[in-house]
Every structure is written in structure tokens, then in C-alpha cells.
Design goal:
heterodimer, A: mainly alpha, Recoverin, domain 1, two-stranded antiparallel ribbon, 2 strands, rod-shaped, disordered N terminus, B: alpha+beta, Beta-Lactamase, 5-stranded antiparallel β-sheet, 42% helix, 22% strand, globular, disordered C terminus, RalBP1-associated Eps domain-containing protein 2 isoform X2 (chain A), calcium ion binding (chain A), repeat (chain A)
Chain lengths: 692, 153
């Protein structure tokens, strides 16, 4: 440092800085330089402003820093002149250090002279705006709402008072202690955007450990005006966010290139969001529809315009549905808003869906990620990976010093190795995350192009009930209601239509009947009648007639074969009668309508004579019948009557059954009508803009 | 390019109307209002055919001395009306079409938002920024237009 200071300074006096001073000055310089040159996402400060290749501190933050030293303006002018900045036109490292030393001199009452530089001086004191996280933590009850809106200046004043005390401590204590306490902090602070928020985080977290870490709090970072009030708030809110969510601190906060700390989702927050997602939608890889999400987020009691804006931010592909990363982003924004943090103009990079998916893969994917990392990393880091995975769920307050100590510089691996003995497990956490995120960054460009494709994706995922536009465009009808007929079938099956229709209406009447496999059923009624008749037949000689026109299908199946058997006797009777033609003629008048039975009779007629011994009952009537055609006629008429009566009875039964069925179906129809009306009403309500 | 952009609901009340504030806004609001008649005329004229066949872009509704008014209607009878400065002579038809398409896409995005109830005023910031981008082009391009088309070819 000294050599650099001496060498870099062209015409200035050789500058001797103690180690503490060196550290402090380099930090401050880095901050000024970084604050000037770094915007969001910038890495190590590369403020090569006026002089390419040289690191300079821009005038703005430097001026603020100087003003913060509370020296009168003319003193500051003197200092600026003396240090050579005015001469060379910029604040190089040398000039900056000289200036700081002169400030220290002035603050301790020494005249502003070059000679003062040679003295042993305390560190310059700057009234920095300290995070009011301290005050916040002092009053946990005031975490939300109004406290947050406190203007920047007021908090500055608060912190200033604290600063005074701490400064005195600082000056009293050896210069080394507070500044040197985190040995790795200088490299850390080189990342200004991070340090800005992160140091606040650290200081806020350190508040939790008042005793040992009190001394660190005076290590206030000069808040460059670059971040401004909005910048001050996010860390505050971040702190409150952390507070509200868990005790666990964010171990990976310092690892990213993104300065927007409050927009990072911690592991625990992530788990919480994922659980909420699962409660709404069991499948983590699927979407939450718009209406479901709307109901859910409305519970957060934010105003509708704000919720609408949050949705706009988080639904990256504008499809009216939220995937898991989109949902996490939305939830995080809502939480941030609830804690008072103003909503950003655009979706922060850490909340982009691609980033969220990359940084927080699903648990199984996480394992694979770490497996791949373990392959790439040296073997001695593998146990760290495993430790990392084990420690993921641990709420470890002891992680605090790790962020404080940890590094974001490129040589972090070496540093980790050196600290392996000190803090193996904690560093495992850090290092793996460190390596995880840079890889995530590299993934991001690859996945960023997906955003375009997402936008270009046809809006086929719109499930929102209010997205009329989508429905119109697709020209879809509302999804048809679930098929009702199933119920009717199920109901009908309770009626057992099979049973209903078998014994029911003769084929002439009902079209409901499954067309019987042609003809066999037809003779059933005759067969039934024959059965009934047969009982009488045994007593009486059997008339050869049958009444096939009254179709009784009750005994359809069982009697199919028997019907044929019955046909045979009839046929047998027919040929056995006097005239072959006469029975046909007799048959014809009786069985005019169903010609099929006649056909049927004729068909088996040929083989019929061969099957003359079907059964004894058949044989009985056959033999009995042969004798007397005229008595057969009389008996035919009586049998006819009985057959007719039975047929009538059966028809009535069938009627009753059908009437019942009809009434039930009517009822179902009414219900369906009502449902339809209800749905149409709903449709009317939900869609005020109707299509013409 | 637009001097005034308006989104009119089916019931002919405005969902969103914005004009370049440099001039008298009332004049633009009135122009949009009167253009609705022309829109209805065009719709009914084309409406003999099936809705599907009807084109969404209505084209030039009517020209005045200083301004031209273009119209576009969606399938749900939401109308977009755009008032363009007549001095932008080089404004081609397909550019107007592309602007309407952008409007339509942004409107669709707004509709996707479940917190937006159809019929409400459009308060989406993304929509606002899109319209601003369309309107800002007028301010930046107007001098170029007068200078010639080549400047923004």
C-alpha cells in the first residue's frame, strides 16, 4: 500500500500509512470508486474514469465523503488542493489517501498541512448514514409501516448519535480492532453494490449479538448517494423481511452479482413459498390459475391495483397463470410490499423466473446440481458439498460470522482452503453457494432467451375466468359440462334396463329393445304361453296353436333352446296334423303380424321331424295333440285368451316400468336444465362484455 | 406516432385514453368520441359477413385537416382508436397496423391479469409504458418526418 501510494503519487509527499489506516482508506476508496462506477450488476469497481487503467474515485461520492467528515468547507477545499486532486484533476488512490489523512488531521485539530501527514493520526471520522436497522431492531414493534417511511435524514440523525458514541469507542480503541476485525472485509467491500446492502445486513444481524459484535457496528460504510434513499430502504426492509421470516440469515447474500438484496429469496422463504404453492396446486411443475391465485393473494390485504401490478411484474409470460418460480416471485413481492418496501419498476433480476429456477431448483435437481459441482470442484471440497446439503435445513445463527468473513473475490477458493481449519462447515456452505451462483449466472443467459419464447408462446395457458379476450380469440365455447348421460346410465342401470326390456313390450311396440338376434326370442312368448299352457296341456290335449304375436321375452334366454324345442312340437304337430297346409293356415291367422315365427317354424321344419324327441313334455302334448283338431281349436281360443291376458299383464308391467323410467328421466332433464340456467347466469355475471 | 390513443369498451365508454399533453386534450377526446360513430358504421358494414371474416383493422376512419383517425376493433367489440398527426405523411398503413397489434397484445396482457376486471379502467403500468413508447415516437420522429422518410427507413 505504501509503495503504491508512494509510487502512484507523482508529486506528492511520500505517504506513510499505518496498517489500519491503509485498510480503512482502501475501503473508503474502493467504496467511492465503486459507488461512482458501479451500477446494479456491476462487479468489482472498474471506475476507470479520467485515466484509463487507473482506478479513480469519482468526485461525487468523494465529495460526499468529505462532507460527511463534518469539516468546514474551506478546510475541505484546502485538503483537496493539498492532496493534489485539483492539480491532477481526479482522485487517484494517492490523492484520496492523502485527503483522508488530512481529514483525520483536521479532525484532530492539526493544521491542514502536508507535514501533518507524517504524524500518527487517528482515523478520519465520517458521519455516515448508518442503517437504521439498529434502531429498527431496537424497536421490533416498529418494524413495519411508519418506521419504514422515515425519511433518510431522520435516520441519519439517529444513527449519527449512535455514531458519536461508537466513534469515541473507535478512537479510543486501537485503530486496528474494529476495522481489522473482519480480515476479509476489504475485499468484500470492494464490491460496493453488495457491501452497501450487505453490510447493512451484517450490521443488522450483528445487532442480534450485541456484545461481541458491537465494536463492528461503527464500521459504517459511507453510503454513497448513488444508492439514495431507495437504496437505504431495501436493506432495512430486507432486515425486516429476514426478521419476519426467520432467524436464519442469508448465507449467500454476498455471493451474487446483484445488488438488490431484498429481492433475493432465502432458502426458507423459498420453502415457504413452495409449500404455499403446493397447498394451492399439488403438482409443483404445473400452474396456478389466475382465479386461484387472485383469491390467494387477495388474502394478503393489499390493494387491488398493487396486486395487479405485482401480478404484472411476476407473470413473465403473461398467460394468466403462475408457474412455481413466478409464484415465488409474486409472493416475495407481496411480502416485500407488506413490509413497506415500494414495488420496483421492473422485476428484479433475482426474481426472474429463469434465475429462480436456476438458483433454486427442486430438491432432486439440487442434488444433481451439487453432484455436478462436486465433480468439477477439487476432491477436498466434496465433503463440503455434502455438508452443504446437510446443513441446508439448519437454522444456524452461527452463520453470521461467515457472511462477515466471507469473500466474493475470485480468490475465494484459496481463502476457503486456508480457512478450512477454522470454519470448515460454514465455509462449505459459502463456497458451494459461491460456486453455485456463478454457474447460475452462466445459465441465465442461456435461459434468458426463453423469456422471448415465453412471450411468443401462444396464450394457451390462460385459465383465468376473466380473460374474455383469450376465449374470444380461441373461439372456444365454455367447457362442456361433465357428461351427464353417465348418471342416467347409472340410474338407468339401477332400473336394470336389461331386466326391464326383456320381459317388456313385445317387439312390435318397443323400439327400445335391442333387436333380438333375430328370431329365437319371438317364439318365447309362445313358449311361455306354452309353458303356461303346457301345465294345462298335461291335462288337456294340446292345441297346436301358439300365440307368437304376443312377445314375452321373460324367458328369453332360458327358453331359447326350449323355444326351439317348443317350436318343434308345434311343427311336429303341424305336420302331424291332418293337413300340412292347414296348420300353417291356422298359424297364419293367429300369427299374422309376426311372420318370423312362421318362418322360424318353417325353417326348423325340415330338421324338425328329425328332432322329434326333445322332451317328454313336448312329446306328451304332441301325442295328445295329434287326435283332435277341432277340440284343439276350442282350446286354442281359451289358450288364446289366457295368453292374451298374460300378455296384457306383462304389457302393463312393462308400461309401469317404462313410465317410471320416463318420470325419472324427466326429472333428470329438469335438473340439467336448472344447472344449465345456473351456469348461464354465472356466465352472464362473469362476462359483462358478451359477444354479439 | 400517435398523438392520442384510446381504448373503448364494448359499451362505448373509454377504458383508457391518453394523449400527448402538449395540446388540448379535450379536442382529442372529442375526436375519439365522434370516431365511434364511424367505427360502428364500419362494423355494421362488414358485419354482414361472419365475425371471423371481419377484419380487425378498420383503417382510416376519417381525416381532418390536422389529424387522421385510425380504428381497430377486437372480437369482443373493444375498440382501439388512434389519432395521428397528419404531418406524419410517411406513416405507412402497415406501421399503423403494427401499432394496433402491439396495442392489442398489451391489452391482452392486461386481460390476463386476474386482478383486472373487464370493464375497469386500464391502470397497468406495462400498458402505459407501451403506449408512451408509441406516443413518444411522435415527438422524436416528427422533425425527422418533415425532413424526409429516409431518416427512419
Amino acid at each position: 500500500m505504501e509503495a503504491a501510494a508512494g509510487g502512484g503519487c507523482g508529486s506528492g509527499p511520500p505517504l506513510l500509512l499505518s496498517e489500519g489506516e491503509q485498510q480503512c482508506y482502501s475501503e473508503l476508496f474502493a467504496r467511492c470508486a465503486g459507488a461512482a462506477g458501479g451500477g446494479p450488476g456491476s462487479g468489482p469497481p472498474e471506475a476507470a474514469r479520467a485515466v484509463p487503467g487507473a482506478v479513480t474515485a469519482a468526485a461525487g461520492p468523494v465529495a460526499d465523503l468529505f462532507r460527511a467528515s463534518q469539516l468546514p468547507a474551506e478546510t475541505l477545499h484546502q485538503i483537496t488542493e493539498l492532496c493534489g486532486a485539483k492539480r491532477v484533476g481526479y482522485f487517484g488512490p494517492t490523492q484520496f489517501y492523502i485527503a483522508l489523512k488530512l481529514i483525520a488531521a483536521a479532525q484532530s485539530g492539526l493544521p491542514v498541512r502536508i507535514e501533518s501527514l507524517k504524524c500518527e493520526l487517528p482515523l478520519p471520522r465520517f458521519m455516515m448514514s448508518k442503517t437504521d436497522a439498529d434502531t429498527r431492531f431496537g424497536n421490533p414493534a416498529e418494524l413495519h409501516g411508519a418506521k419504514v417511511q422515515i425519511p433518510y435524514l431522520i435516520t441519519e440523525k439517529n444513527t449519527f448519535k449512535r455514531m458519536d458514541d461508537e466513534d469515541k469507542q473507535e478512537t479510543q480503541s486501537p485503530t486496528m480492532s474494529p476495522l481489522a476485525s473482519p480480515p476479509s472485509s476489504p475485499p468484500h467491500y470492494q464490491r460496493v453494490p453488495l457491501s452497501h446492502g450487505y453490510s447493512k445486513l451484517r450490521s443488522s444481524t450483528e445487532q442480534m449479538h450485541p456484545a461481541p459484535y458491537e465494536a463492528r457496528q461503527p464500521l459504517v460504510q459511507p453510503e454513497g448517494p448513488s444508492s439514495g434513499a431507495a437504496g437505504a430502504k431495501p436493506p432495512r426492509h430486507q432486515a425486516s423481511l429476514i426478521r419476519s421470516f426467520s432467524v436464519e440469515r442469508e448465507p449467500h447474500d454476498n455471493n451474487s452479482n446483484y445488488p438488490d438484496e431484498p429481492w433475493r429469496i432465502t432458502e426458507e422463504q423459498r420453502e415457504y413459498y413452495v409449500n404455499q404453492f403446493r397447498s394451492l396446486q399439488p403438482d409443483p411443475s404445473s400452474f396456478i390459475s389466475g382465479s386461484v391465485a387472485k383469491n390467494f393473494f387477495t388474502k394478503s390485504k393489499l390493494s387491488i391495483p398493487e396486486l395487479s401490478y405485482i401480478w404484472e411484474l411476476s407473470d413473465a409470460d403473461c398467460d394468466g397463470a403462475l408457474t412455481l418460480p413466478e409464484f415465488c416471485a409474486a409472493f416475495h413481492l407481496i411480502v416485500a410490499r407488506k413490509n413497506g418496501y415500494p414495488l420496483p419498476e421492473g422485476l428484479p433480476p433475482t426474481l426472474q423466473p429463469e434465475y429462480l429456477q436456476a438458483a433454486f431448483p427442486k430438491p432432486k435437481r439440487e442434488c444433481t446440481l451439487f453432484d455436478s459441482y462436486s465433480e468439477s470442484m477439487p476432491a477436498n471440497q466434496q465433503p463440503r458439498d455434502l455438508n452443504r446439503m446437510e446443513k441446508l435445513s439448519i437454522k444456524d445463527m452461527a452463520d453470521f460470522p461467515v457472511p462477515a468473513q466471507d469473500v466474493t473475490s475470485d480468490d475465494k477458493q484459496e481463502q476457503n482452503k486456508t480457512r478450512l481449519e477454522q470454519n470448515k462447515i460454514r465455509l462449505a456452505l459459502k463456497s458451494t453457494v459461491d460456486e453455485a451462483l456463478p454457474k447460475d449466472m452462466s445459465e441465465d443467459p442461456a435461459t434468458s432467451k426463453d423469456s422471448n419464447s415465453l412471450k411468443a408462446r401462444p396464450r394457451s395457458r390462460s385459465y383465468s375466468s376473466t380473460s374474455i379476450e383469450e376465449a374470444m380469440k380461441r373461439g372456444e365455447d365454455p367447457p362442456t359440462p361433465p357428461p351427464r348421460p353417465q348418471k342416467t346410465h347409472s340410474r338407468a342401470s339401477s332400473l336394470d334396463l336389461n331386466k326391464v326390456f326383456q320381459p317388456s313390450v313385445p317387439a312390435t311396440k318397443s323400439g327400445l329393445l335391442p333387436p333380438p338376434p333375430a328370431l329365437p326370442p319371438r317364439p318365447c312368448p309362445s313358449q311361455i304361453s306354452h309353458h303356461n299352457v303346457n301345465s294345462e296341456c298335461s291335462a288337456q290335449p294340446r292345441p297346436p296353436t301358439q300365440l307368437p304375436n304376443y312377445g314375452d321375452f321373460r324367458l328369453q334366454k332360458q327358453s331359447e333352446q326350449a323355444s326351439e324345442a317348443e317350436i318343434h312340437p308345434q311343427l311336429n304337430r303341424a305336420p302331424s296334423q291332418a293337413a300340412d297346409s292347414s296348420p300353417t293356415k291356422k298359424d297364419i291367422p293367429y300369427s299374422q303380424p309376426p311372420s318370423k315365427p312362421i318362418r322360424r317354424k318353417f325353417r326348423p321344419e325340415n330338421p324338425a321331424p328329425e328332432n322329434q324327441e326333445p322332451s317328454s313334455t313336448v312329446g306328451g302334448p304332441a301325442s295328445a295333440v295329434t287326435g283332435k283338431p277341432h277340440t284343439a281349436v276350442q282350446k286354442q281360443s281359451s289358450k288364446q285368451k289366457k295368453a292374451i291376458q298374460t300378455a296384457i299383464r306383462k304389457n302393463k308391467e312393462a308400461n309401469a316400468v317404462l313410465a317410471r323410467l320416463n318420470s325419472e328421466l324427466q326429472q333428470q332433464l329438469k335438473e340439467v336444465h336448472q344447472e344449465r340456467i345456473a351456469l348461464e347466469n354465472q356466465l352472464e355475471q362473469l362476462r359483462p362484455v358478451t359477444v354479439l | 406516432m400517435a398523438v392520442c390513443v384510446a381504448v373503448i369498451a364494448k359499451e362505448n365508454y373509454p377504458l383508457y385514453i391518453r394523449s400527448i399533453p402538449t395540446e388540448n386534450e379535450l379536442k382529442f377526446h372529442y375526436m375519439v368520441h365522434t370516431s365511434l360513430d364511424v367505427v360502428d358504421e364500419k362494423i355494421s358494414a362488414m358485419g354482414k359477413a361472419l365475425v371471423d371474416q371481419r377484419e380487425l383493422y378498420l383503417g382510416l376512419l376519417y381525416p381532418t385537416e390536422d389529424y387522421k383517425v385510425y380504428g381497430y376493433v377486437t372480437n369482443s367489440k373493444v375498440k382501439f382508436v388512434m389519432v395521428v398527426d397528419s404531418s406524419n405523411t410517411a406513416l405507412r398503413d402497415n406501421e399503423i397496423r403494427s401499432m394496433f397489434r402491439k396495442l392489442h397484445n398489451s391489452y391482452t396482457d392486461v386481460m390476463c391479469n386476474p386482478f383486472y376486471n373487464p370493464g375497469d379502467r386500464i391502470q397497468s403500468r406495462a400498458f402505459d409504458s407501451m403506449v408512451t413508447s408509441m406516443m413518444i415516437q411522435v415527438l422524436s420522429r416528427a422533425p425527422c418526418c418533415r425532413a424526409g422518410e429516409a431518416l427512419w427507413a
